[in-house]
Each structure stands twice: as structure tokens, then as C-alpha cells.
Specification:
- The structure holds 3 protein chains of 3 kinds.
- Chain A contains 13 helices and no strands.
- Chain A is mainly alpha-helical.
- Chain A has one domain: Orthogonal Bundle (MetI-like fold), CATH 1.10.3720.10.
- In chain A, helix 5 packs across helix 11.
- By secondary structure, chain C is α/β, with parallel strands linked by helices.
- In chain C, the strands form 5 sheets. A 5-stranded mixed β-sheet of chain C has the order 2-1-3-14-6, covered by helices on one side.
- The chains are: A mainly alpha, B mainly alpha, C alpha/beta.
- Chains in contact: A-B, A-C, B-C.
Chain lengths: 295, 285, 447
């Protein structure tokens, strides 16, 4: 481990410990502590006895489990791919705009929807996706979607949630990646240009590798957000009078277990499954993005 | 030449994608319920209808909307202060200081960021109910202040954009650890401080699930939870409320607009600083 | 300030984790109230504010109570009323059960699924009302069958606020103009549909695009898809002939386009079919909510006919679409105040006859409510007799289990209909989905 590099002052707590102390307290209280308690719940019965993997087999056998996993997986694939491809492309393109005013105006326009996360954005999209009031009704009818119920047909939902998430989330990532692109010294880009590299080659060979850490970071956070899909289907369910079930996503299912079936143990088991999946994917991104390398 | 046209088209297309719904939101809030359905989506309503919508919004449960907005501001600002005090030093230390457990702390932070919200909310609820904080501001402010995302952002920023040599130099000049952080690192970190502050504010402002569970009393709701209560009082989305329902769709649209206005305003004033700040950080390296 | 509280929270957390106290909360063993005359273990009674949860529509009820009782100490909280299967009350009560504090003294809900879970020993949130707490005379004043959704194994757990039984709404002006007579049976209704399709295409005689289509059509057809036979037992026969006849009627009418598949309260409906409604089988609250509220039919056009019956039924039976209820918490420390409150809001004319938007479940108030409606001059003809007649005709064979069979319909049948499948072909899916949902909640399912 690299933590022993600055030898000589290793008596008692290092100054670093003081710097992280506040955070560690919160981390234990609202991160690790609750997580351990969830772990405890996942392996016990509601009377507090050891349950082994019963809670897990029970949730696996639930008829709602596999569909929910399928929904979330379809959404995640669409969401992560579109995010990576489009956000990186847009950040590079916006960065290449020479006109300062146009560039900052574009960043601003792209970012605005970021202000509408959560319930607000879903509420807005409920209107936008309703052909009778939608500003893009012509587009919906081009896909032969005449009523709200046709728009929210089960097959369309992963795409719809991707569009909503992209609409609210992409702008802030474009701003972040744009900022990261700015940290690439001018000389490096100029040198590539001098060598006769086209804008595209510069982007692929020089800028993209420098963005690697940020892209990995973006993917991890988007993955975390994506696996926790909750507010979107929940509100769509409410607005469609239940045509979209309240058990659409895994997280909703965990919520139903806890608050509808009074089965906090099953709920915890589901959460642990989600967590294992998320951590596995995140580990992949960390490794690919070399996120832990400081130098 | 064609590449230029292509990028132009791409940028315009996405500009439309990002702005049309916002534009619609602004227009729709000035329409009467009938106009919302009958008139063109791009036609503006009237000032009269906007006033009507505003009045019925304010009349909803005797001005509950203003209470909710006030709550949102209170929770988001309290959490913002705590988050900054806690997260920036932590991110700095993780990136640039050596101490036992650094790598472990990084990994744990990452893992916790991935924890599904529902898994954490129940234990957090039990914890806070044990210390009698349920239905107080602290029950949302304290969990809000735990912001691993911000710590990570700070960590990455210090790890990539601030040269270690600069800090070594400061230490050699006799600065204490705290002094180095306060006098050298923090001024360099203005952009990331702004980013973390901004993301923390936006996140907390938009958080729905936690306050929904922690605050059983409607007077204590933040705006986002209040919005869903309005959704449930709109006959289009909940027919059971009957004909005399207090909320018509344009009123709901106006409430949505109101719920995002503060974040929009904060962004309007800070966006220059946010992006310019990141550039400034770069030129120093 | 905050760090201190954080440390307290941290310490508390460790305590909780270490003890690992068993969850699942029975009745409190507070023996002070174990022998109360109310038939449940009561909490120690105290003075203080009565905590009342209402939805935004029933806020008027609480305010009316306050106005009539200036000295009463009320803390009124609004929530979504459990609408559309949001399960807010259930969620919060389960959190309070774990925290062992925080329950509202009185709560209003718009769904009929609360008794099934809140009466269970695992929660025990709702207080039994007919074991000595409320006077039998009060309970007897409610319409026949009104308290069925409140009743589990003979114990009444709630007071119904309003009834939502189904009648046949029709546009008298249009019917006269077209020369049609109001049908009395579903068979006549279906036949009239065919004539409308041929002679006046575009006009509709019903809608089936909402989650309560099964309550209007299946329930009225005595379809045995949802027979709750015990606290945790249900009989599901969704492909029974009585379900099939309603399904096939829907298919016929949907095919000839006289049955709308749009959602009644969606913007589409008011825009495209609002002025095309010839007839509409639906609950009594459609009068205000649909005709006056959503599609704004001019006064003097809408009339009410008795609920439709199938030819082999001796008299009409109808379904029930919603209808709210008031619940008292068994944990309440203000039981006397709670009793006075729920009795007043459900039975007193000052609210039920004057202000309530739906047909009161309390018979005496219902008479006055109807008289007030009639006096408004909006209706074409007498609406009182058919609505009153239908109030006692709700078929008792459709139960109120812990889950909502309507949301199962919404999830399985409506998307299929939207994709162009027939209701008949979707009945087996509906059957399977109800069975699965019932099993999730621990019901024993009989097919």
C-alpha cells in the first residue's frame, strides 16, 4: 500500500484522519451502519432468528422478480450506452465550438433540465408523453402512438425512462466532461494538431484517454442511479392508474416487500442482490477507468 | 464542411430536445385547463389564466405550497453547509494525504454510493426514531449531509488537477497541514467547491424518498413530496378526488415550474463560475 | 450542534444492530387497557390534540368539524388518501409500528383494502368499532352492505364515508333525439350498442379504459374473480361463465367502437369523446366528477337509470367503485375525541348532506344529499330513486382483500387491450395474475 510513503510521522493518528473524521462519522451513521443492518435483516427471519438464504430463495421464486430484473437490465443497457456515446460526443463537440458565446449558451441550454430531477421531471414528462397535450405529439403519432396508454406500453418503458434520465442527467455530465476537457493543457492539443491529426483523431487519441477517469466515474454513478430506478415508474404507475405496475423495477419490488407485505427481511435480501450486482459492475468500471490511481 | 454542418445539426437537435419540454412548461403554466388541451402546445396562454393558476396554487390547502418551498430551502441549505464542512476536507485528504485506511475508505465510499436507497432508508429510519429525531429537520438534514458523491468529486479533482509538488512546497515552507489546506489547496479548489455545493443543493432539493419516509406531517414536507400530494389531488391523475378537486392540470404544471425555479436560478447565477472555475484550475497546472 | 447528534445517532445505531430486536409487532401488552370495554387493548388515555389524516378532498370534513366544535383540539394532516394503490397509509403505519409511535388517531382512506391488513395481528392498527366502542345504533344507520369493506370476520373496523355503487348514466337529450329507449338489461344494452354503431357511429355507450372496469362490468355480472372467504383465503374463478359474458360484451362493444378504451379522466377522452357520451354505466360519483367536472355536459341533459341487470338476474346487482372510509387507531390516546370525530363526519348533515362530493354511506344523510343534488337543477329527471335503489344492491360476492384486484386488472388486462387483444382472451392472464398476487400476500387460493 502506498499509505506508508511519507514515513517519519506515523505515530498515532495522521493529520489525514482529522480531515476525514467528519465524513467517517456520517459514513458510519448513514452508510455502513444501515447497510450492515440491512445485511443482518437479509439473513434473519422477522422474529430475529437465523434464516440462512431463505429470504433470497423466496425472492428469487417470486413471480415478479425476473420481470423486474429484466426491466431494469433493459433500461440500464439503453441508459449507460446512450449516456456514454452521446454525452462524450456532445462534450467533445461542444468543446470544439470556437465561438465562446455559442459554446457557453449551448452548455447552458443542455444543462437546464438538470434542474428538474426527480418528481418534477417525471411530472413534466407525463405531460410531454401524453399525445393530447404533448408539444411533440406529431413525433409520437409518427410512431403510431395516439393515446397515453399506447405510449406507456410495456415495451416502450425502458426507452422512455432512458429518455427522461438522459434529459435530466446528461447536461450536468456534459458540463463536468467539458470542464475535464478544459484541464487538458492547450499545448498537448496543439502538439497533436501540429502533427497533422484531424479533430476526430485528436479526440480519440488524446482527449478520450484523458477523460477515462471521468467516464468511469460517470458510469458508476449512473449505474448506481439506474439500478435504483424508483421514482419514474412509481409516478408513471400513479398517473396511469396502475397500468404500469408498482412492481416494475427491483427497487420498487424491495419497497413493496417492506411496506406492502411487511417483509423487511425479503426487502433487505433484494437490496443485497442489487448491491452485489452494482458493486460487480462498478468494480469493472473502476478497473477499466483506473479510478484509484492518483498519479 | 459537411462535418461542420453535421455538428451544427447535432448540436441544434439536442438543444431542441433539452429545451422544448422546458418551453412547454413555461407556456402551459399560463393556460386554462381547457386551453391546455385545445390550443396549440406552442401557443402562449394569457396573463389572466396565469394569475388564476397562481391563485389556485396558493389557495391549495391554505398556502401549503409556500410552506413546502420554505421547507425545501431550509433542508437544502442546512445540509449544504454540513456537506461542505465535511466533504471537502475528506476528499482532499483522500487524494493528497497519506494515512492508514485511505484505500479502504475509498472503496467503502464507492460501495455505499451503490447501495439501493430503499435498503438504507429503513435502518436509517429506525436509527433516527431511536434518538427521537423523526419528524424533525435533522431527520433529513443529517442523512442529506452524508454525500459520498461530493467526497468523490473532490477526491478526483485534487487527484487530477492540483499538483502535489505545490503542496509539498507549501509544507516545506512551514505550513501546517491545516494551513496548507486552508491557504493553498482550498483557493485552488474553488471550482470543485462550487460543483459539490451545486450538486449537493440540487440533489437535496430533488430528493423524494427520504423526506417522504422521515416526515409524516404534511407541514414538514419539502416541495418534491408536496408535488406528489398535488398530483394526488388532480382529477386527471386521481379521479377519486371528485369534481371539486382543488388542483387542475395547469396548476400542477405551475407547481412543477415553481418546484424547479430555485435550482434554475442558482444555476443561472453560478453556471459561469462553475465552468470558468474548472478552466482556471487547469491553467495553473 | 450537529456532530453531537450524529454521535448519538451512531451510538443508537450500534445498539440497534447489536440487540437485533425481533421485528413484527403484536398488540402492546400495556395491561392498563387490556380489559377495556371496547374489545381491544387501549392505550393510556390522555388529553391532547387529535391527530387526523385526511386527503385533500376530505379536508373540508375536518374543517367543518372544527367549525362546529371550536373547542376541539385538532391536528389536521393531509396526505394522498392512499389513492391509486399508493399505500401511503400502510407504509407509514408500518414505519410507526416499528417506531412504536406516531400513528394518527383518525385516518381517512379512499381504498377498500385497508381492513384486510390493518386488522391483522401483525399490525393491529385499526380499532374494532362494533365491540363496544361505537353505539350499535350509529352502525345500524349505514346503508345495507355499506360496512362490508370494513368488516373482517364479523368485526367492523371502519365507517364508510360514501358509497360508490354503479348506476346507468345517460344523456336524455341525445337518446330522445336518436329515438332510443333506456335499456334495462345488459343484453338490451349490448343490442343498443350495435344500433348506435350502425346509426350514429362515433357515439359511445360506456368506457373500459380504466382500472375500475372490472368493478363496473365484472362485479355487476357476479363474476367470482375475487371472493374473499376468510381473513387469508380467496376464491378466484376469473374465467367463469359470468365473467366470460361480461368480457364478451366488452369485446363486442369495443369492436364496434361504442365502448371507449380511453381513460375517462385522461385528457384524450374529454378532447375526443367528451361530447359523444350517450350512456355510461358507472358509480354515482360520475355525476359530479365526469359530467359536471371533466366533460362539462350542459345542464338538463344527463339522467340516471337503474343499474343494468343480466336477463337471468331477478334484480340488478351492482359493483362498487371506491368509496372512502374512516379508521380509528387502536393506539389512540384520545379515543373519546376520535369517536366523536368519526361519528360526526360520517353522519352529521353539516358535512355529509351539505358539503360531501359523494353519496353518503349514512342513510339519513344520503336522503338529504340527494335532495340537494336534485334541487341543483342540473339533472334531467329524478336521480334519487335509481341511485337509492342501487345503493342496497351491491353484490356481496366481490371481496376486499389486502391487495387491489383492480390494480391487477390495470396491469394485466389494460396493456393487452391497448395492444388489440380481446378481454376474453385476457381472462386467463387475469386469473393467473390475481392468484399470484394473492399468494404474495399469503392468501390460500381456491380456483
Amino acid at each position: 500500500m502506498r499509505s506508508v510513503t511519507s514515513g517519519g510521522r506515523r505515530f498515532g493518528p495522521a493529520p489525514g484522519h482529522l480531515f476525514v473524521s467528519g465524513y467517517v462519522v456520517l459514513l458510519v451513521a448513514f452508510g455502513i451502519g444501515p447497510a450492515l443492518y440491512a445485511l443482518y435483516l437479509a439473513f434473519t427471519t422477522n422474529m430475529g432468528y437465523w434464516a440462512g438464504i431463505d429470504n433470497f430463495t423466496k425472492t428469487f421464486a417470486d413471480f415478479r422478480f425476473l420481470p423486474a430484473v429484466g426491466h431494469v437490465a433493459a433500461y440500464l443497457v439503453l441508459w449507460l450506452v446512450s449516456l456514454t456515446v452521446l454525452v462524450v460526443t456532445l462534450a467533445l463537440v461542444v468543446h470544439s465550438v470556437r465561438n465562446r458565446v455559442a459554446g457557453s449558451a449551448l452548455r447552458f441550454l443542455y444543462y437546464i433540465p438538470g434542474a428538474l430531477a426527480g418528481a418534477s421531471s417525471v411530472l413534466l414528462w407525463l405531460f410531454v408523453l401524453d399525445p393530447s397535450v404533448s408539444p411533440v405529439a406529431w413525433l409520437l403519432s409518427a410512431f403510431d402512438l395516439q393515446t397515453f396508454n399506447q405510449v406507456i406500453a410495456p415495451g416502450n418503458l425502458p426507452l422512455i425512462f432512458t429518455v427522461i434520465a438522459f434529459w435530466t442527467g446528461a447536461g450536468s455530465w456534459i458540463v463536468v466532461l467539458y470542464g475535464a476537457l478544459n484541464t487538458i493543457p492547450h499545448e498537448v492539443i496543439e502538439a497533436a494538431r501540429m502533427d497533422g491529426a484531424s479533430a476526430l483523431t485528436t479526440a480519440l487519441r488524446v482527449q478520450l484517454p484523458m477523460l477515462r477517469k471521468w467516464i468511469a466515474y460517470m458510469l458508476i454513478l449512473s449505474l448506481a442511479g439506474g439500478t435504483q430506478l424508483f421514482v419514474e415508474p412509481q409516478l408513471v404507475s400513479q398517473a396511469s392508474f396502475g397500468v404500469v405496475g408498482t412492481d416494475y423495477s427491483v427497487n420498487q419490488l424491495a419497497y413493496l416487500y417492506a411496506f406492502n407485505q411487511n417483509d423487511f427481511n425479503g426487502s433487505a435480501a433484494l437490496s443485497i442482490i442489487l448491491l452485489i450486482f452494482s458493486v460487480a459492475c462498478a468494480a469493472l468500471f473502476v478497473a477499466r477507468g483506473r479510478l484509484f490511481d492518483v498519479d | 464542411m459537411s462535418t461542420k454542418a453535421l455538428t451544427g445539426a447535432l448540436l441544434t437537435l439536442f438543444a431542441l430536445f433539452f429545451t422544448i419540454p422546458i418551453l412547454w412548461l413555461l407556456l402551459a403554466s399560463s393556460k386554462s385547463p381547457a386551453e391546455l388541451i385545445d390550443s396549440s402546445p406552442y401557443a402562449p396562454g394569457s396573463l389572466g389564466s396565469l394569475t388564476d393558476n397562481w391563485n389556485s396554487l396558493i389557495a391549495f390547502q391554505d398556502g401549503a405550497v409556500l410552506t413546502w418551498l420554505g421547507n425545501s430551502v431550509k433542508y437544502a441549505l442546512m445540509a449544504l453547509v454540513l456537506t461542505m464542512v465535511v466533504s471537502i476536507p475528506a476528499g482532499y485528504a483522500l487524494a493528497l494525504m497519506s494515512f492508514a485506511g485511505r484505500r479502504l475508505l475509498l472503496i467503502v465510499t464507492l460501495v455505499v454510493m451503490l447501495m439501493p436507497a430503499t435498503a438504507l432508508v429503513l435502518p436509517t429510519f429506525l436509527e433516527l426514531s431511536y434518538v427521537d429525531l423523526i419528524n424533525t429537520s435533522w431527520s433529513v438534514v443529517l442523512p442529506f449531509s452524508f454525500f459520498p458523491f461530493g467526497v468523490y468529486l473532490t477526491y478526483i479533482y485534487f487527484g487530477t488537477a492540483v499538483p502535489r509538488e505545490l503542496l509539498e512546497a507549501a509544507r516545506l515552507d512551514g505550513c501546517s497541514e491545516a494551513g496548507t489546506f486552508w491557504r493553498v489547496a482550498l483557493p485552488l479548489a474553488k471550482p470543485v467547491v462550487a460543483l459539490v455545493a451545486f450538486f449537493s443543493f440540487t440533489n437535496n432539493w430533488n430528493n423524494f424518498f427520504l423526506p417522504y419516509v422521515m416526515l409524516p406531517v404534511s407541514d414538514a414536507y419539502p416541495m418534491q413530496v408536496g408535488l406528489t400530494q398535488m398530483l394526488a389531488s388532480t382529477p386527471t391523475f386521481n379521479p377519486v378526488v371528485g369534481a371539486n378537486a382543488e388542483v387542475q392540470p395547469p396548476t400542477l404544471v405551475l407547481a412543477t415550474l415553481l418546484s424547479v425555479a430555485p435550482v434554475l436560478i442558482v444555476f443561472l447565477f453560478s453556471q459561469r463560475f462553475l465552468v470558468a472555475g474548472m478552466t482556471a484550475g487547469a491553467t495553473k497546472s | 450542534m450537529s456532530p453531537k447528534k450524529v454521535f448519538i445517532a451512531l451510538a443508537a445505531l450500534l445498539t440497534i444492530s447489536a440487540c437485533g430486536q425481533p421485528v413484527g409487532n403484536g398488540k402492546t401488552t400495556d395491561d392498563a387497557g387490556a380489559n377495556s370495554p371496547y374489545g381491544f387493548t387501549t392505550a393510556a388515555q390522555k388529553d391532547g390534540e387529535l391527530l387526523v389524516w385526511v386527503d385533500s378532498t376530505r379536508l373540508d370534513a375536518a374543517k367543518a368539524y372544527q367549525a362546529a366544535h371550536p373547542d376541539a383540539k385538532l391536528d389536521i394532516v393531509t396526505y394522498d388518501g392512499n389513492a391509486n394503490g399508493s399505500n401511503t397509509l400502510k407504509t407509514k403505519v408500518q414505519l410507526f409500528d416499528k417506531a412504536k409511535a406516531g400513528w394518527p388517531d383518525v385516518a381517512f382512506t379512499t381504498d377498500n383494502n385497508t381492513a384486510a391488513w390493518a386488522s391483522q395481528p401483525s399490525s393491529g392498527f385499526t380499532a374494532p368499532l362494533n365491540k363496544g366502542y361505537l353505539d350499535q345504533a350509529t352502525l345500524d344507520g349505514f346503508a345495507k352492505g355499506a360496512l362490508d369493506p370494513c368488516t373482517v370476520d364479523g368485526t367492523v373496523y371502519c365507517l364508510r364515508n360514501d358509497l360508490a355503487h354503479v348506476v346507468l348514466w345517460y344523456n336524455k337529450k341525445l337518446l330522445d333525439q336518436f329515438g332510443y329507449t333506456v335499456p334495462a338489461t345488459w343484453e338490451e344494452y349490448t343490442a343498443l350498442g350495435a344500433r348506435v354503431a350502425a346509426e350514429h357511429p362515433g357515439y359511445i355507450i360506456g368506457t373500459a379504459g380504466d382500472a375500475w372496469a372490472p368493478e363496473v362490468y365484472m362485479w355487476g355480472s357476479e363474476c367470482p374473480a375475487n371472493q374473499v372467504t376468510g381473513a387469508k383465503a380467496i376464491t378466484v374463478k376469473a374465467t367463469d361463465a359470468k365473467c366470460a359474458r361480461a368480457a364478451s360484451m366488452l369485446d363486442t362493444l369495443i369492436a364496434n367502437k361504442t365502448m371507449s378504451t380511453l381513460s375517462l379522466f385522461g385528457a384524450d377522452f374529454a378532447k375526443t369523446q367528451g361530447d359523444k357520451v350517450l350512456m355510461l354505466p358507472g358509480p354515482n360519483w360520475y355525476g359530479g366528477a365526469v359530467f359536471q367536472g371533466t366533460i362539462k355536459t350542459p345542464a338538463g341533459e344527463i339522467g340516471v337509470a337503474p343499474a343494468l341487470k343480466w336477463a337471468d338476474q331477478p334484480a340488478p346487482v351492482t359493483g362498487n367503485v371506491g368509496g372512502g372510509a374512516w379508521w380509528v387507531s387502536s393506539h389512540s390516546e384520545h379515543l373519546d375525541a376520535a369517536k366523536d370525530f368519526v361519528t360526526w363526519v360520517t353522519t352529521n348533515d353539516a358535512y355529509q348532506a351539505e358539503l360531501a362530493p359523494g353519496y353518503p354511506a349514512y342513510s339519513a344523510a344520503a336522503v338529504k344529499w340527494l335532495a340537494k343534488q336534485q334541487a341543483s337543477g342540473y339533472w334531467a329527471g329524478d336521480i334519487g330513486a335509481p341511485i337509492t335503489a342501487a345503493a342496497g344492491a351491491v353484490w356481496p360476492g366481490w371481496g376486499a382483500p389486502e391487495f387491489s384486484p383492480e390494480s391487477v386488472w390495470a396491469k394485466t388486462v389494460i396493456p393487452g387491450m391497448t395492444a388489440g387483444k380481446t378481454v376474453t382472451s385476457l381472462l386467463p392472464d387475469w386469473q393467473k395474475a390475481i392468484e399470484q398476487e394473492a399468494q404474495v400476500f399469503g392468501y390460500t387460493v381456491t380456483k
